[in-house]
Amino acid sequence: MADSISFFASLPEDINFKIASLLQVRDLCALGCSSKFWKQVCFSDSIWHHLLTNRWPLFRSPLSPNLKTWRRLYFERHIDLGLRAGSVERFLKGCSRNESLEVDDYLQAVEIVNGARFGFEDIQRLLFKPEMNVLVNLVGVHYCITNLGIPGDNLVKVLRTCEISDRHVCVKWWKLGRWIHGYRGRDELLFRWISLENLATEEDETVLRVLRRGTVLEVLRVQISAVDHKSIPWSYQDNQ
């Protein structure tokens, strides 16, 4: 043990910084508790500032006057986002009726996530759990595409890893009837069954565009429902 510490102590400081910065947070903390040398490296502000800005690139917060360390800020933000994710889940549960959700409530949930500046890792850990309602998963997918700009292929890999890629939702939207010869026709109901994976890679973005815009212009209402994959007609699945 002493020989290994002597070896690393002889290395340039930036090399040890690079080694420590590649570790998972749990492993970094464990290494920092193994010796005085590694405690100095692993618990340094430079390491934790790197971890914080790498995990949350949209987060901008200087150290507060009460001398918080970057390590403390990291864990405070980690805990806070866990609480925010719980509030999103409770909000959607309170708004949904019979597993259906109106688009205004859905967009409000997306805005809660956006306001907290979730990172991609947070979405994976907190909103992509298979035991959650698929509507919560959907909010995470929407945020990743629209706000984080995650490429579809990368997002699909994560959805598959989290075992939620084949979960489905049904999006219905009612369009104002067209005016023909001075008369307005009947309002039109459109709908799509779509999996989270297909939403992430949808080329024409029809469903995502409806979810983004909500009830504007000719769209009177948008409703999102959780769907059991087994209940979708096979003929419809084959056309997806």
Automatic annotation (TrEMBL):
InterPro entries for the chain: F-box-like_dom_sf, F-box_dom, FBXO4
Instruction: Give a Gene Ontology cellular component term annotated to this protein.
Output: SCF ubiquitin ligase complex
Report the superkingdom from the record: Eukaryota
Q: Where is the F-box domain?
A: 5-51
Q: Name one GO biological process term.
A: SCF-dependent proteasomal ubiquitin-dependent protein catabolic process
Gene3D superfamilies reported for this sequence: 1.20.1280.50
Would you tell me the protein name for this molecule?
F-box domain-containing protein
Source species: Pisum sativum
